[in-house]
């Protein structure tokens, strides 16, 4: 998908802001829905964000973006889903309880809980939203040109459209991804942020209410 002209890029920005809005779930989500550009236009914020992900130059950023586009965290979630889907509910529970690695036990508890309720893309929304933010961060700190940023965005958008037909399922995919990857209790992300997630779907200025994925 080519998004080459300024007119095309301007037209796609509401869609991009909808995808990015999930990265700000929490107390600031209302502010960033009202001021979406502030999520990625602050140089210090974006520089710090990339450093947190150990991305210190253009080469590292491009390698990271390419990995998330081709593989991402959705791949390991899919492999875990395949593993657990071959077991009965009782066998899944017993298998998980016997794990000695606490983080793996938490992860597989999340997979088991949502085994049959996620769309085919699994937790792909987690990958897509964070890739999008990394693209804007790379542009803001000078690792990517505007054309390079939009080239990646032009690859992300068709992947979103291929995997999701409703923002509700996109949000569910993202939330499960956060629960799967955070080193906390399996339900902590959803329980802590339930009111903010509901706010995203009811706030009349939410970009997600303007169109479908």
What does this structure look like?
The protein has 213 residues and is an all-alpha fold. Helices cover 69% and strands 0% of the residues. It has helices at 6-21, 29-34, 43-52, 58-70, 72-85, 89-97, 102-113, 124-141, 146-163, 167-181, 188-202. The longest helix has 18 residues, at 124-141.
Quick synopsis:
The chain is built from eleven helices and no strands. The protein has helices at 6-21, 29-34, 43-52, 58-70, 72-85, 89-97, 102-113, 124-141, 146-163, 167-181, 188-202. α3 packs across α8.
The helical percent reads: 55-70%
Number of helices: 11
Q: Which structural category do the helix and sheet elements fall into?
A: mainly alpha
The main β sheet shows up as: none
Shape summary = globular
Order of helices and strands: HHHHHHHHHHH
Tell me the strand percentage band.
under 5%
Provide tags for this entry:
mainly alpha; globular; 213 residues
Q: Could you give the topology of this structure?
A:
Layout: H1 6-21, H2 29-34, H3 43-52, H4 58-70, H5 72-85, H6 89-97, H7 102-113, H8 124-141, H9 146-163, H10 167-181, H11 188-202
Helix pairs in contact: 1-8, 3-8, 4-8, 6-7, 7-10, 8-9, 8-10, 10-11
């Amino acid at each position: 998908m080519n998004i080459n002209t300024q007119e095309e890029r301007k037209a796609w920005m509401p869609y991009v802001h909808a995808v990015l809005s999930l990265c700000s779930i929490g107390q600031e989500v209302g502010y960033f829905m009202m001021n979406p550009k502030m999520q990625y236009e602050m140089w210090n914020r974006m520089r710090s964000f990339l450093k947190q992900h150990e991305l210190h130059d253009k080469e590292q950023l491009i390698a990271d973006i390419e990995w998330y586009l081709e593989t991402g965290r959705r791949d390991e979630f899919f492999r875990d889903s395949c593993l657990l889907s071959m077991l009965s509910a009782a066998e899944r529970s017993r298998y998980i309880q016997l794990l000695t690695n606490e983080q793996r036990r938490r992860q597989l508890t999340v997979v088991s809980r949502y085994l049959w309720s996620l769309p085919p893309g699994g937790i792909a929304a987690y990958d897509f939203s964070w890739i999008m933010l990394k693209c804007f961060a790379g542009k803001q700190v000078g690792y990517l040109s505007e054309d390079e940023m939009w080239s990646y965005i032009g690859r992300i958008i068709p992947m979103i459209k291929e995997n999701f037909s409703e923002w509700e399922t996109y949000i569910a995919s993202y939330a499960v991804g956060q629960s799967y990857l955070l080193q906390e209790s399996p339900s902590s992300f959803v329980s802590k942020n339930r009111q903010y997630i509901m706010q995203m779907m009811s706030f009349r200025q939410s970009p997600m209410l303007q169109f479908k994925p």
